[in-house]
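ok trying this again, last paste got cut off
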Amino acid sequence: MFVEVPIGTYTGWNLFNRSFFEDGFCTLQGSFIPFAPTRAERLATGDSRLSIEERYPLKEAYAAAVKQAAERLVSNRHLLPEDATRLISQAERDGIRSAP
């Protein structure tokens, strides 16, 4: 669900700092790289990915995207209807998530 209505990029790999653990083995699997909150911040950092405000200009736009994704996942039998209801209600109540 959260991959279909993202607030950042999920990867199957980790970035490491040269001074810490470079080329080492890590038991953590994958990283989360959040989108910039605003278009201005995205442009200032040179991030080519759309910002949160560009993706979901209003809380309602995010909730609508969650609802559409949840309904699609339920119809494909990848999400239980009761879980979809909970996720939609949470998005309508809380708005855009701030963490993965």
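PB: full thing came through this time. Residues 59-75 form the longest helix (17 residues).
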